[in-house]
Design brief:
Order of helices and strands of chain B: HHHHHHHHHHHHEHEHHEHHEHH
Number of helices of chain B: 19
Radius of gyration of chain A: 19 Å
Helix content of chain B: over 70%
Distance between the termini of chain B: 25 Å
Number of strands of chain B: 4
Oligomer: heterodimer
CATH class of chain A: Mainly Alpha
Largest sheet of chain A: none
Structural class of chain B: mainly alpha
Distance between the termini of chain A: 28 Å
Number of domains of chain B: 3
CATH architecture of chain A: Up-down Bundle
Radius of gyration of chain B: 24 Å
């Protein structure tokens, strides 16, 4: 019995660690964007490296969890949902890493007056991701709490849409090159897309939670 | 040698039962992919055998009172008829109740041989067919409600819930297999108990294994083989329609099944209830199929009536109605062939005598014997002939017929108190009862009831108690009488 529960606890810990990595990725991104906007290139590079490592660790951990869930035929009823949740959470982390990498590759020249809005957008997007992770954690232990976290995630996602819209309107009213306007819109779109991806996870989670309660 | 050929039909019946009932034990666990079929089959095989050998004797006695198939060729034919019915229903993927098929088969034998059917035993058995599923539904409803309430508050990780459910399904399945063996071995081998060729067996200083237990071991092994070889196919077909439940609901179903089977199998519980002055639950071979289906409905109701497939249920209920009828008709037809084509004796030729003592006994039992005046002193051989002659006089109810048969049956009994005491448990008889037994040492009786009456006159403790709540004591007393008849007849 103890052996059985030890194995279960081990897998439980791995799932928790995986979700920790998603949160960590979100925090690295937030700090990375802040450093970029402040022009702290060294710190930005460090956060980017850390984010890459986090993303790679999360991939390895996710594969290990998925293999164990299949090999040990665990939670047969909810296995599909759990795997789906882990994979879609992984897509969120991938998008986070990809977006920060684009800052490094394309080095967009940020318009000074838009910087606070970009910080707000990043905060709202990452708050969506954090709420998403809380909701996923609740799915495993307290399904009745999932709804609260999903509601919060939806709120922050909407906020990211609002801020993104404001940035785009402001940029396109400015007297700057069209190429620069498009570049600004592109980065706005990508940060917003992280929140959208997190929202998709929440939608999937809502269905999985209903299935669990049946 | 021929006896083993006859017992082989019991083995066939055991195999059919195993194939058809594996789904009741681990169906939910395998269908919900929580336990692999191979693991389930091996575990249930082991526990079915243990249940059959260690706790199988309780329910056999009730079945024997329904009608004692008293010739080995009769047992063979009835078991074959039941086995064929169950195998055929299995082929049709209907979760059939073996208990019902056995009862149908025994009634078929009674009809063929003219033997009376004990209507009180029959109604007792039929009542549990209704009570069993209702009780299971109630238990499943309550357990599901408790389990979901507990999980809501316990805040356990989904993986923890999974692990505990898996452990519960394995333990519950093993217990259900044990109960299945204990409860259903009577259906498989019960009929052969009175004609068993196996002697008690003792090895070194180990406790001796009775002939009945050896017979049950063979039956238990047959059930286990049936589960392993054909159970998966039934699980695939029956399980898919009926047991498509979540692992937690599956666990609740198995636990409810185990609880109900325990209630109707446990001699221990019966003793405890009787000891506390509470009404006891009759020990009868209950159909695990019906119990499981009752439990599935209970879970469905606990979920607000969702997910109950009424079309499938109707099909199953139809199977319950036709199983005993088909088994009865098959037994009747086969008995005809075995008796007339193969010239085997399917019923022991029993003599019935309506002498003055019997007439007096019948009056004492409250029967109007005026119609029998012309038969006074007559001796008739064969149950069928006796029934025909009785029916010519006037019409009788089946209960009255039972009284007539038991009173008039001629038995050659000679009391040997010393041998009786060696065969009975030393604590079974009180000093008064022993004295009454010693007082009639060497006396011969023509009817069983005469022995009973003489003993009861010698010491009132020989009476079979009939007060409410004394069922366990009455059963013990009937067991003692049954041993005495066997011992004294052999002398």
């Amino acid at each position: 019995m103890d052996l059985l529960l030890r194995k279960t606890r081990n897998l439980e810990r791995q799932i928790d660690e995986y979700l920790d990595l998603v949160i960590r990725g979100a925090l690295e991104f937030k700090e990375g964007v802040k450093c970029y906007l402040r022009g702290q290139t060294d710190d930005f590079a460090r956060h980017m490296r850390d984010l890459e490592t986090t993303e790679s660790d999360a991939d390895t951990l996710r594969r290990s969890i998925e293999t164990r869930l299949y090999m040990e035929t665990l939670i047969p009823e909810s296995r599909g949902d759990v795997l789906g949740l882990l994979e879609s959470s992984d897509r969120v982390l991938n998008r986070i890493a990809e977006t920060l990498a684009q800052f490094d590759v394309e080095v967009p020249t940020m318009i000074e007056e838009l910087k606070p809005l970009y910080l707000d957008l990043t905060d709202a997007s990452m708050a969506t991701v954090e709420c998403m992770v809380t909701a996923v954690r609740a799915y495993f232990r307290q399904p009745d709490q999932v709804r609260d976290s999903i509601t919060k995630a939806m709120f922050y996602e909407k906020q990211s849409d609002t801020v993104g819209d404001r940035i785009k309107r402001t940029v396109f009213k400015m007297d700057i090159d069209l190429s620069r306007k498009i570049h600004m819109r592109y980065f706005t779109y990508h940060v917003e897309a992280i929140a959208d991806e997190a929202e998709d996870v929440c939608d999937r989670l809502a269905i999985a939670t209903i299935k669990r309660s049946l | 040698m021929i006896i083993w050929l006859f017992i082989s039909t019991g083995v066939f019946l055991g195999w059919s039962l195993g194939a058809n009932h594996a789904v009741n034990v681990f169906g939910t666990a395998v269908a919900s992919r929580m336990v692999r079929f191979r693991t389930a089959a091996v575990l249930s095989g082991i526990f079915v055998v243990l249940g059959a050998v260690l706790s199988g004797e309780g329910t056999t006695r009730t079945l024997n009172t329904l009608g004692a198939v008293n010739a080995i060729a009769g047992c063979f034919t009835v078991a074959l008829a039941v086995g064929l019915t169950v195998a055929w229903m299995t082929k049709l993927t209907l979760p059939v109740s073996t208990s019902q098929a056995v009862v149908g088969g025994i009634i078929g034998w009674n009809l063929f041989t003219g033997s009376p059917t004990d209507t009180s035993s029959l109604s007792k058995i039929v009542s549990t067919w209704v009570i069993g599923p209702v009780l299971a539904a109630f238990f499943a409803f309550a357990l599901f409600w408790l389990a979901t309430g507990f999980l809501k508050n316990a805040r356990m990780h989904i993986l923890h819930v999974d692990a505990w459910t898996r452990v519960g399904l394995i333990i519950g399945g093993a217990l259900a297999a044990y109960m299945l063996g204990a409860n259903n071995i009577a259906n498989v081998m019960g009929m052969f108990v009175s004609a068993s060729p196996l002697a008690d067996f003792s090895f070194l200083n180990m406790p001796s294994v009775s002939g009945t237990q050896q017979l049950f071991l063979i039956g238990g092994l047959a059930i286990a083989v049936g589960m392993y070889t054909y159970g998966e196919r039934v699980m695939d077909t029956v399980g898919r329609d009926l047991y498509k439940v979540t692992p937690l609901a599956g666990l609740v179903v198995v636990l409810a099944e185990t609880l109900v089977l325990f209630l109707v199998t446990s001699e221990w519980l019966e003793g405890v209830l009787a000891g506390a002055g509470l009404p006891t639950i009759p020990l009868v071979p209950l159909s695990s199929t019906q119990v499981v289906i009752g439990a599935v409905i209970g879970v469905g109701l606990a979920k607000g009536g969702r997910g109950i497939n009424y079309r499938v249920l109707l099909r199953i209920a139809w199977g319950w109605v036709i199983a005993p009828v088909i088994a009865g008709i098959t037994a009747f037809i086969l008995l005809f062939f075995v008796q007339n084509v193969f010239e085997q004796q399917v019923v022991r030729r029993t003599e019935y005598r309506l002498d003055a003592a019997v007439m007096e006994e019948l009056s004492r039992r409250g029967l109007d014997t005026t119609a029998l005046a012309s038969l006074s002193g007559a001796s008739i051989e064969g149950a069928s002939e006796f029934r025909q002659i009785l029916e010519k006089q006037r019409s009788w109810t089946e209960a009255q017929m039972m009284e007539l048969f038991t009173a008039a049956e001629v038995d050659s009994i000679r009391v040997d108190s010393l041998v009786a005491l060696t065969r009975l448990d030393s604590a079974a008889l009180s000093p008064g009862q022993r004295r009454a037994l010693f007082a009639i040492h060497g006396t011969a009786f023509a009817h069983r009831w005469q022995l009973n009456r003489t003993l009861q006159q010698g010491d009132p403790a020989w009476r079979i108690p009939d007060a409410k709540g004394s069922e366990a004591a009455a059963k013990r007393m009937r067991g003692i009488y049954s041993t005495l008849y066997t011992v004294f007849q052999k002398r």
